[in-house]
Records
---
Amino acid sequence: MLVVDENPENRRAVRGSLEALGWLVDEAADGPQAIDAAVARDYAAVFMDRESSGIAGLRAAGSTARVIGRTTVDPARLALLATSRSGRDLVAELVDLFVRSAPSRAGALRDAAGLADRDALRFVAHNLRGSAGNLGADALREACTHLENAAVAGRWADARALVDTVVAELEAARDALLVLAVS
Amino acid sequence: MTETMAPSRPLNVMVVDDEAVSRVVLRSAVEDLGHIVEEATSGDDAWARISRDGMPDVVITDHLMPGIGGFELCRRIRALRDDSYTYVVVVTALDDPDDVLAGMEAGADDYLTKPLDPRQLGLRLVAAQRVTGAYREMAGYRAELERANGELVEMARTDPLTRLGNRRRLHEDLEALHARAMRYGHEYCLALVDLDSFKAYNDTYGHSAGDDALKAVADALTAECRTGDAVYRYGGEELVVLLSEQALDGACVAVERMRNAVMMLGIPHVNNTAGGVVTISAGVASLTPGAQVTGVLTAADDALYRAKAAGKNRVTS
């Protein structure tokens, strides 16, 4: 796992969390360093504080490593869960629950938005927000919060657009969690 | 950090959330602290479990759920009055501070925010253990107090020498019997019993022997009672027998049997003018329609006087 962040304290924190999850970790301070590292070694994933800045460079240099943004999944949250007695087994169990429920939740969101069913949309969004928060999927959590508010307020145009955002974040979080949980 | 220490007494913790990831996170954290977890997948599920199996020590419930929500569940739990105390923690989103207040007003003891922090949960359960423990202790004191009160009530109505009910109990039982008899038109009789020449007995044999004789007579009368009848110490050497559901002639037969039983004890009493052994005289009266309790007692007393005047060791009505 490669951690890219210009702030050394942030790098250290993310590194600690990833190591708690069983990963071997390298660090890079910026885009060029990250590209050098990614060309030299194969990484399961590259962890970036600002996703957009480095991806193009990585791809241009021929790296196919998966890129995970810090807001997609915060590894600190997973590391906290891994301090439980069941440790990484708990993390694996939670990720499994989340991954397995992802398609039905995405479907439920689209159905509720399509039917303009306020309560259903609100509860599904709220429910997903809880899961996201527990797993450190912060971007998904935030998107769910916006969707929940739009549903409560009955702003249906916003809500339908937000469903797309939530589903996209849901898929991103699912992919990132699948990588992170199987070290 | 006491996080990994097993608690002295595990709490039964019900985790209520319609969202599976949160339930698993809570379950894991609660079990790590050495407590016992029961999961409920909704407020309705939680309420059904509580109604069926009784109250857990702690309920940790999500706020927003379809059906019975966390606050409503909290209100329902608080509406159940019980000796035990259920510690309720509501889980709200971090960005809903108003919800926390509403939850506390619904009767919650504390709150947690999502995403759940296992260490925060640990703190809540330490508080929960303290509070439920204090309530349990209070319930124990209350039970002890009730038991002691019951004992006092019993003591205050028992004659220590004969173990018979005393005059206070007689009056209570008599009032109850009388009220029942008046309401349903049933009959009952009352016998006033007196040991013959008892002062002479005490003078001859001493007060300790007098006590023994009184006890022996009390036991003999009790042994002759039917179920539902009762013997009381009225005072001094006077006893009362209450014969419920008994007409006067039947009661006289029963008391006559008692008189005979006492005589057959054969306790020597040389200065008894009615014979050489301990004997009793008895006056029997029955409830007369519309009579007062005191009327029955007076009638029995009059009958006893006649028994004495006629030579003792006899039953008069």
---
Amino acid sequence: MVNIVVNGTERQFDGDEETPLLWYLRDELGLTGTKYGCGIAACGVCTVHVDGFPTFACVTPVGTLEGAEVTTIEGLSENGDHPVQVAWRDLNVAQCGYCQAGQIMQAAALVDGSETVSDEDIDYAMSGNLCRCGTYTRIRAAIRQAAEAK
Amino acid sequence: MRDTPILNVSRRGVLGGLGAATFVLAVGLPRPGRAQEDEPEFGRDAMPNGWSDDPKVFIAIDADGTVTITCHRSEMGQGVRTSIAMVVADELGADWDRVRVDQAPGEEETYGNQDTDGSRSLRHFFVPMRRAGAAARAMLAQAAADEWGVDVSEVTAGNHEVTHAASGRALGYGELAAAAMELDVPAGDALVLMDPSEFRYIGSSEIGLVDNMDITTGQATYGIDVRRDGMLYAVIARPPVYGGRAARYDDSAALAIDGVEKVVAIDPVDFPTEFAPLGGVAVIARNTYLAIKGRDALEIEWEDGPNATYDSAAYRKTLSEAANAPGGTVIRDEGDVDAALEGAAQTLEAEYYIPHLAQAPMEPPAALVEIRDGRAEAWACTQAPQVTRLRLAERLGLEKEDVTVNVTLLGGGFGRKSKPDFVLEAGILSQAMDGAPVKLTWTREDDINHGYYHTVSVEKMQAGLGEDGAPVAWLHRTAAPTIGSIFAPDPMQKLPFELGMGLLNMPLAIENVRAENPEAAAHVRIGWYRSVSNIPHAFAIQSFVAELAEAAGRDPKDYLLDVIGPAQMVDPRDQGDVWNYGENPDVYPIDTGRMAAVVEAAAQGIEWGREMPQNSGLGIAGHYSFVSYVAVAAEVTVEDGFVSVPRVSIAIDCGPQVNPDRIRSQMEGAVLMGIGQALMSEVTFAKGRAEQDNYDTYLVPRMEDAPKRIDVHLVTSHSGYDQPLGGVGEPGLPPVVPAITNAVFAATGKRIRTLPIGDQLRS
């Protein structure tokens, strides 16, 4: 039995403890905002926060999360109004949108965790998050905007 | 009228329900239900199931005034749900804040063609969607006039209400909707479209994406996200070699896993495969993790079949031999190339290689199907809901009417999701589970190992230059497996639509031109990949033009403009291109003036001619595709053999711009995808097996690979909306790669003729 908190709700998991957090969130809890893209921590579309740190859910076994607090895109803000989410909409960052939950979670951790955000910080922090549509230049702009708005 | 038959071998021809056996025969045959054989139809008229402009199909207005616009084209990041709604809402006179968008299921008999490919959605549906909106507005006005007992000419509809100035009365669209929808739809010329000067949404860059809130809060539903009560989850172990089969398998270990419900064998595929599942062994479980775990536990002995020895390095030599041998089928021939080469002051030749690519959309193929009471319902991230419906019905032994295909958002498509094999797999597995809802997910390994790959090609170029350095002869031999290989047994030559992707119809003014297409066989599934055959053609042609410029001692941009020549209208039929992206060549001739204008704009945007630091350089390329004109100027820096692309200027003339922000985003995306093709992306094969299987080996650009600056220039040769629309989703991509490799030459003096660059510049 694993006790974890997901988006503020206490959960007990009693399945195969090797189950990646990704599939627990998606298939068991129905939180499909966290996406599957690679299963090997190579694309970042599954990025969530575990105790505040951006984490790839696809390679994080639920069994390692006893007592952890997990935040997914669904729980990032009350009304979708985290500065990163707002900037994403302002700049029409998304194309297909599939990777953007992971991008937003990664970017939110960056913006929330630093006083200032340089372009180098952005490239470094975001390098694990792929976007096949090629929205990178808008992601950079949105992160800068969100960092300023904070 | 020309004698040249119009060859209906486009994507739509293929997707229009033509079976594999009839595919070849369908070329040039009259289509049933069409007016007359000698009246070729073009554009939206020629698409399977045509188009509709019926407001009752596309627009619903609730009593509270909420306007629901149905988008019948698949959203895969091009912004079509927003753009279609902008068009309808504008003509309707709707308040954008009260508009919502619904997605149509696959039902072309109702909506018209739904194949979301070929960069056609707005090109074909701008006018019908305008008409639908305008008709609904006229009906609302009539309903108000009837209500007030006044002539309709006295009322005005707009901003979500109808007003009667003389009496000061007003009724909201919601109040009028029920009565309005009872009225006859104004037909034909009775319908008056808005003057473009009145547009509020069309042409505006201020409209947010209709799915923005859902996307940024994790509420958007893609194919992989669909949930149904009692659903099961499946993955499939497919034959590692195209055309192989599972000879025998042991599923005892898989079935021993708690939560694995069933193991199902799927029949192997027959050639030509079209959209059929590849076969294999499926594991159905209580969640995706257990399905994958169960698949890992399967022991399968594969028979590899006829493609067991496919080796892409060896096959490159085969293609190269074919491309270097004279005598292939001549597909374009003007003047006397041999004599002109003979008499040239200097001759050049070059051979270019473009590898297999995987579309690798971030959302892999995924679909859910359930079957109840003899009716199947699918939810899928499909670009082709109609062909999905047809093939799913066939495979499940149902009537088309008993199959519903719901279209989710697509987490990228790039052509991969035009093929419904994955939806059929989900259907087969649901059937195996007595109709229970089964979600079939492709893992990333599945996606890259079992794709519908971009073809592989060798493009052999030869040219002769006159004393002045201008080209007097041009010979292009293209050797590449055809997409036709999934539709017909062993075709060895490219189809007209492939040849019409920038090879035959290159906008260069050279007197003696010959193009040849030697034979090439396919050993993997070949499929559409964003911009398709334009990728190799543009790379070869635009690289070679730059090579000629170098040989002539000229500036590459000036030379490119000279070779494009003076502004003129070129009839693609005169170049041997009978396809012309399905469009009427009289309406869509090749306008070399527009081509030159985008080259100038791209060059200006990068500040062409400026002094560059050591190891940095500028490159330029232009390409005409999907009846749009695009040029790219790129700046690269090469350090220790590593190429970076700090700045790109891309210019497009796609005719009238409906949603400028989404045109810009498509160009930005094309730049990134092109950077991947130029620098890193490649699928290789050994022993018939793909050697890459995930994003750690199949490389695509990351944040640090993105330019610091991408400037998009929207070029127009006409103001207003009377010019026909060009494509947007695909035409940005082809010129990106040669612009980068030409810039690499400027930076290093090294000419890239093999893609990707990879470690070619590292010592």
